[in-house]
Queue: 4 jobs
Job 1
Amino acid sequence: TPTNAAKQTITVIRGDGIGPEIMDAALYVLDAMDVGLQYEEADAGMVALEKHGELLPAATMDSIRRNRIALKSPLTTPVGEGFSSINVELRKRFDLYANVRPAKSFPNTKSRFPEDVDLITVRENTEGAYIGEGQMTSEDGQIATLTQKVTRKGSERIVRYAFDLARSTGRKKVTVVHKANILKSTSGLFLKVAREVAAQYPEIECNEMIVDNTCMQLVMRPEQFDIIVTTNLFGDIISDLCAGLVGGLGLAPGANIGADAAIFEAVHGSAPDIAGKGIANPCALLLAVGQMLDHLGKPADATRLRAAIVATLEAKDALTPDLGGQGNTMSFAKAIASRV
Ligand code: ATP
Ligand code: MG
């Protein structure tokens, strides 16, 4: 039909554990927003293993390749099923080089910084210490080694991503986090390339900070940060630190972005302990929807969604138990949907 032809299709992966519950909630809100998206469901994780005999079926890969955008619930990777993590496998196969993790203080959430934090960590996702190459433990088990790899190309595209993100979202400052004083080759190359890229964005303030100092500064004065860009290992640690600053995983979204595909998700896992009870907090996935709308060039809709989430938290309207509320996943989603 003509209406559908005008709609953009995204791949939807309902996932495992609480995944289907929070996805229902997220799509309920997205439908209420009426932003012209339609969904193509694809299986991955335990559900896919049971239905199709594999964790990451070819049809799912094709769907993501075709639509280029996926909204994904948490997936469980059973031990001994081919790869160590489906999420890592997806990042590898689609070369999703940028892991983008916003951390923002929200009202009525347990946080040490109730209003000061509004930052985004941009983590390089394909190289650095996590390439898995050169990992060796000597035969006697006394010496372990690991190869790190940083490339000009990898550094350039992640730093460029961070500055473009600053431009497109109206943010003012990018902090390049490194350890070039000690890791002179790898972190040194990253910093050198970052300076070159920063020079091409004169309207955006750029500063450099050593990773250990960054951790201290984040805990003492998080309001000084806007966008942080860094290599894989530092980014992994810092992005979780930042999630902790604003009250933990229940409100932490993440995006994995490559040149040909982007996958948006909640940072938390499948939470089997509360699966099926209808009480999971859908906020992290909804905030990932906000990131997706920004990425799709719909910033006004992303802002509208985030404002509805904030207003619902402020009103303490039908919040889930993890936020101290008496509501459930769907009541929370409906309260948000009524404000979009
Ligand atoms: P996985 O094996 O998939 O990582 P997990 O149990 O480790 O699953 P986490 O997300 O790491 O899942 O959950 C850690 C704790 O936080 C659990 O007690 C879980 O119930 C809780 N939790 C995680 N996500 C949510 C959510 N969206 N709403 C409420 N509680 C959550
Ligand atoms: Mg976990």
Note: The chain has twelve helices and twelve strands.
Job 2
Amino acid sequence: SVPLGFFAGIGAAAQVGVLVKGSNYLEELNTIDTVVFDKTGTITKGEFGVSQIIAQGMAKEELLALAARIEAKSNHPIAKSIVSAYGNLKVEEIIGEYKEISGEGIVVNQGDSVLLAGNEKLMAHYQIDYKQEEEIGSHVYVARDGQYLGCIVVADQIKADSKAAIAKLKAGGIKKVIMLTGDKKENAYKIGNEVGIDTVHAELLPQDKVTKLEEALKGGKVTFVGDGINDAPVLARADVGIAMGGVGSDAAIEASDIVLMTDELSSIADVMSIAKRTRKIVT
Ligand code: ADP
Ligand code: MG
């Protein structure tokens, strides 16, 4: 097909909903052989719905209300889903020392009382004797003053075009597709399988994601695709960082080289084929 100059290449990318921050990134895209994806908000929609509430010694509504108050200040998609499931009531702020632990959850220290909402790792750190739930989804365990109060199960959905987008990348010559996530192995492997990921690394803390990306960089040229919630440093470290424009955080959009304005992963293969048609105009 017709070769494009660099400005035309950036224009063509814009037409498929992709913002390329500089012509050098189009050139770099031609050399990529490994695509590394974040899971939540990237392969999946990042819109969790509450699917179950398992309360221990209190009403379900009471557990949900407590969890919503603990999660009220968090921007994490899991936190937002719990707050919105509680209702569009104004969540009264928990007064206390609030701490968000990346990849684990929330701790609120009220002096005379400690509130926790988060995953298995958070419960283990605070030595809570919790009951592991087996329902499919992400589990937000809630505890107060060392006492386990129950679990809220939230579930996300795979984006409609994730599987097709990965197939398209492979058809276009990408050799390896990797997924990195802080989520549990069970969820991560199931999602990875469904969409055609070659290698899944799960239960990663934000710094572990950087380590895994650096390992991938030793094997070739790497692009990382993420929403920036807990992964902005990984975006910055990749040869080409691609951020979600819709659900993505401001930090992600800032740290990235390319932004997918529609969050559709199939536009990555589109911009890669535009990059192939783009060449430097020699003057
Ligand atoms: P991902 O890598 O899939 O984008 P994150 O690193 O953002 O996931 O989070 C990893 C895990 O940490 C989540 O699956 C969840 O179990 C837990 N987590 C993180 N933030 C919160 C929060 N605000 N409330 C409850 N759980 C949380
Ligand atoms: Mg994420």
Note: The mean pLDDT is 91.
Job 3
Amino acid sequence: MEKQLSIKTLDQLSRDVAVPDYDLRKSQCGIVHIGPGAFHRAHQAYYTDLALAYGGNWRIHGVSMRSDTLKKALAPQDNLYSLAVVDNTPSLRVLGAIKTLSTLSEDRDVITAALCSPAIKIISLTVTEKGYCLNNTGSLDVENPDIQHDLANPDLPISAVGLIAQALKAREHSGDADVTIISCDNVTDNGKKLAKAVIDFAYYLSPELAKWIQNNIAFPCTMVDSITPATDDEVKSNVSANLGLKDDWPIQRETFTQWVIEDHFSGPRPPWEKVGVTFTKDVTFFEKAKLRILNGTHSTLAYVGLLFGKETVYDAISTPSIQVLISALLEREIIPSIETDNIETLRQYAADIIARYHNKHIRHMLSQIAWDGSQKLPFRILDTVRDNLHANRDINLLCIPIAAWCLFVSRKAKAGESITDPKATALIERATRHAFDPVAVTNDLLNETTIFAELSANSLFRDHVLAQVKTLSAWSTQDVDETLDPI
Ligand code: CS2
């Protein structure tokens, strides 16, 4: 049988593969990361792997909230895995930053002990938008079943918010405030939102705990960026072939990677600044630019592209009329929504992002980006709509991704297919009760105030979305490929 990647076999790797530059047998954990999915493994774990070369016990204890698949796959590999950079200049590197992997359902005691351990100085997380359990007024969503469970059973939490609150309660008792909580999700003001969720939750447990957290624990905001499609079988077999050893769960990403962190810590941290991480007083600009320009156009490509039979980001952006749409959306409605004194830099930033979409070595599935639309669209598109309405700017093109999302939900419901979204049941039900008529379904979906909030009652917004639904419904796949000027 082919030999597998592990600490023991590291010396048998192909020569051009980079390996950890620190002692894997000695260095200990200083970080607990909740949600060690592909993005974390390609991004924060990569930076931490590089920073470990400067010393310090900064390895990561990864905590999966539900699934034990990653833990099982990486156990025979001593949690080592490869990062394949897939671009014009490909490269391969084995990362060792993750020392331990645990799953909440199997290892609760180990996880609780780690979160409360004085050795752990950073608790970070990538739990996606829905993991923050906030409602559309920005407060903890006490209707959320996981939050209800955790408030009733604060010693047996099943949500990330409940888990962090439990750890901070123990730290309040032991007087150990030497820890920073870092959100790494694509959420506006991610640190502030996480703090709000945890402090609201803590308040239900005890107002003193809420106050202690507020006064002692830092929740810096961050901007994270690197396109990291899910690992498929092709990636697995290519990586294993290039490695010379079997790797059961490598990850892939593009060359570009960026991490900007608000310089606000309540304890020590790895020397991330030595390995390309930017520390700044205020990440608002970086965060807004990235969420609106990259994630906003990504979601537009996903819903418009899927509507017209495209599979990947590359397929969609290579379609002339879709490319025209994206450029116009950026230039007319997204870029003007971001305050800057250097518009040319922002335009260049957007052009660089479009160039990244043209990476033909990466198959980034639109269906993956289309997940969780109810959670993503508010940060990616609706906040921009709000700012434009407020400033009397156009919202016409911004209504295209919203219209395309309504048609996506409607078509999925008609085909009897499910969608990956925490609100899937309610959305499919809204589509079904109007017999999938695009205009009627859209009108009903726009009533979903948990997504659209006050925009549900905004007739200008509604009229634009409905008009775009009619336009999109009239297009054919051939139009998009050949003749259409969508704007
Ligand atoms: C994507 C992001 O899946 C998605 O919704 O838009 O994950 C995107 O690839 C990253 O934010 C890039 O940094």
Note: The CA atoms of residues 51 and 271 lie 6 Å apart.
Job 4
Amino acid sequence: RLLGTAWAAGAGGLVVCAAGGAGAYAATRPAAPTPLTRLGAEAVPFHGTHQAGIATPLQAAGHLAAFDLAPGAGRAQAVALLRRWTACAAALTEGRPAPDHDTGVALDAGPCSLTVTFGFGHSFFDRTGLVKQRPVQLDPLPAFSSDHLDPARSNGDLWIQVGADDALVAFHALRALQKAAGATARVRWQMSGFNRSPGATAHPMTMRNLMGQIDGTGNPQQSAPRFDEQVFVPAKPASDGTTPAGPAWMANGSYAVVRRIRMLLDDWEKLSVDAQEKVIGRRKSDGAPLTGGTERTAMNLTKTGPDGKLVIPADAHARIAQPSANGGAAMLRRAFSYQDGIGADGTPDAGLLFVAWQADPLTGFVPVQRKLDRGDALSAFIRHEASGLFAVPGGAAEGEYVGQRLLE
Ligand code: HEM
């Protein structure tokens, strides 16, 4: 959906609003419209069968944030919070101001493909007395030998993913949601990431990560017949009231596995391009398999070179991670790159905010990570530093709030 002008102008302009607190704005006075480009005007519908921000094309800026319910806050407070968050996200994604306390940060921008996606962590169900409704899919992920996880930056009662094609629009949404949390929930951790800006290349291209690789080629494609069943929990409950991937309230939802994966860039950048390509099994320039063709050509996993060795090495990341090596395990990897300066060890604190979406993490992320953890060639150059697992319910219909089918 395309909107013509930024909300500030379209809705009639701005004055400082006393009721909204110092620095808050309300649309009350006419002003000249702010013309928008196609990029600024692009709006991703908030309401729908699935939450936005899963099958939506990757945006240029993203924030991940986890919240814990405040002491004393339970189910009733969680319902009120999800109502506030839903109203806030619905407004912002349409390019309207946040209810009550808009900060004006995104005044002259349109929605810029803003999406806000909400999820529930394992501990949410204890806090709200809903343990019986907790999907087994939220059981803690197994420990992996390569984990260096920081509990303070892992998991959480509630999770939000914000994405937009403009950094101010993304921050504006994050801030509005933090404020809407009020005294009900406190930020446990938050992380910010980025991707290439849309329009930087003449045609849309698969993203490149901070190791320089084309990243996302092997993802399930939306046009593929199995995309929905791989990414989303089926809507039709089984006869016992459960769906294969959890309770009925999760119908049309998805499970997000979040991993903050540091890239050991100083080590990686010492490798020749040839060595880097063998680590993945694909060409750095265009993402094509080392066995030839273009990015979308299938890998030839049996082809050997003149030296008799496999062209795509036995420990190449793409070989080990591919569905046919893992009982069909598939996930939609929708990651943001991050960089937070130089770490205490003097190396870049940079890498991937890895977000994998699947209908069931037990048949998606877990078997693949188990296999990779036994030592794919990439393992020596990355470190998993934080982890989260969240149940992301289906999308809210107009008039509904996100998570209503769980909380009502
Ligand atoms: C493929 C990079 C972590 C699962 C790839 C590819 C690259 C890559 C460059 C080949 C292109 C593509 O198909 O996207 C990375 C980097 C990682 C990382 C830099 C960490 C910083 C992970 C993790 C998992 C994973 C933790 C899951 C547990 C996959 C899968 C494929 C893939 C399923 C597609 C394989 C195929 O079907 O061909 N990755 N990856 N990756 N990766 Fe990773």
Note: The CA atoms of residues 198 and 204 lie 7 Å apart.
